[in-house]
Amino acid sequence: MIEMEQAEECFIGMMLADEDIAATLEVYPQREWFKNKMLGKISDAIQKSNSIDPLEISNLCGVPHLEIVKLQVNAPISHNPNAYANQIYNQHKGRMIIQTAKKWIDHCTYNKDFFDETDSDMNRLQQISGGVHEVVFTKQLLDEWITDKEKRICGEIKPVPSGFPSLDRMFSGGLHRGDLVTVAGRPGSGKSSFLKSGLINMFKGKPETKAAIFSIEMSPNEYLDRMCSEWTGVPGTKLREAVHLTESDLDAVMEFTRSFHDKNFSFNRVQSCTVYDIVRLAKAAKLRMHGLDVILVDHLHIIKNHNSRLQERDRLAEQTITLKRLGQELDVPVVLAAQCNRQQENRPDKTPQMSDLRGGGSIEEDSNCVLFIHRPGLYDSAVDAGIAEVALRKNRHGPSPAKLVFRFDCDRTAFIEMA
User: Fold this and answer.
1) pTM score of the predicted model
2) Residue 271 confidence (pLDDT) above 70
3) How many CB atoms lie within 10 A of CB 228?
């Protein structure tokens, strides 16, 4: 293998010698991949320019004209420019790994902040180490597409039921694997209850469902109280107090315990989770349960900040894209609860809109589907408090906007489909 500096010079020389070579590359090296910053500038200018004229390239990147001519004249004769591009990429990847390792070694205090930052570094390195993305050409693309359709026809690949048939119809069959589905609403609107009701219905429809639950605001006992209340019909407040449970209530609770003893779901024991804790625990859950069907995260805006230097907008953007990539990697849908801001409460029409999502546009951009929970009775005493609207504002698998109406049982914190 030739030296790194020589590989970079050879690659740039080849690009300058033949303008058709760029079209043969599987991926064009990015500017930051080059160890020699001057060559990185030239590479970036070649990619942006419509020609390989040294004078034009010089004007674009600020590198002296004669330096560019020299590279062009000394260009090697090679029929494999991808080998040079891959070597540049691999060397960049190696430097990033070494730099990160040195940073860890030089760190003075190994505290919680250090390990949170380490999780972020490892996620970044994992993305870098994924390799150069190959281009897929027509024949392979069509073969893979047909294979996917055959598996769907045979039932080998199918969406995960959301627990609500009316919503599944809107989603073309259910929650699609690898999707990020955001359920948003104001505090107290029922976001957590909607996720919990969906999970209960999943277990009723398919008892072997495997779920990873991440509730950042509720303890495992509180979450089980709510699940038990919806399953048995025993009011949630009565379950939490426990002292007023009747004999029939206790029989129902024991029946719930027996029914759920063989269910497959995991729950985070510690509420103070970063998004990288969620990634790690979800992967562990899939290994322990020998599979995974769905991940529930409740909720985005109270996931612990892994990096105190990030502004909220940047933090949310990193968290949503990380959760989306987690779903794609594990091949499961991720259902994410998120808060709305106060804007909707200042409008005559309190129906939530996409602009009400708190913390920037990354939630909308990264989500495959976005739906809002709205209970008009919270704002208007003349409206039945048991009516809940689910407004579908973004849907990559079906119609939007659309609205579904549910019955909300306050005693059981349960969402029930209306006929």
Assistant:
1) 0.71
2) yes
3) 22
In the predicted structure, residue 4 carries a pLDDT above the cut 70: no
Q: State the pairing for strand pair 264-267/210-215.
A: parallel
Q: How far is CA 122 from the centre of its chain?
A: 17
Residue 375's pLDDT is what? 93
pLDDT (average), residues 262-267: 93
Beta bridge partners of 294: 211
Taking a C-beta distance cutoff of 8 angstroms, is the pair 41, 57 a contact? Answer: no
DSSP letters spanning 394-410? EETTS--SEEEEEEEET
Residues 335-370 as b or e (16 or more Cβ within 10 Å = b): bbbbbbeeebeeeeebebebebbbbbebbbebbbbb
Q: What tokens appear for 386 in the block?
A: 């048991």
What are the tens digits of pLDDT across the range 225-234?
Answer: 999 999 999 9
Q: Please give the full DSSP string across 78-140, using - where no structure is assigned.
A: -S-HHHHHHHHHHHHHHHHHHHHHHHHHH-S--SHHHHHHHHHHHHHHHHHTT-PPPPPPHHH
Which two three-digit tokens encode residue 295?
């991940």
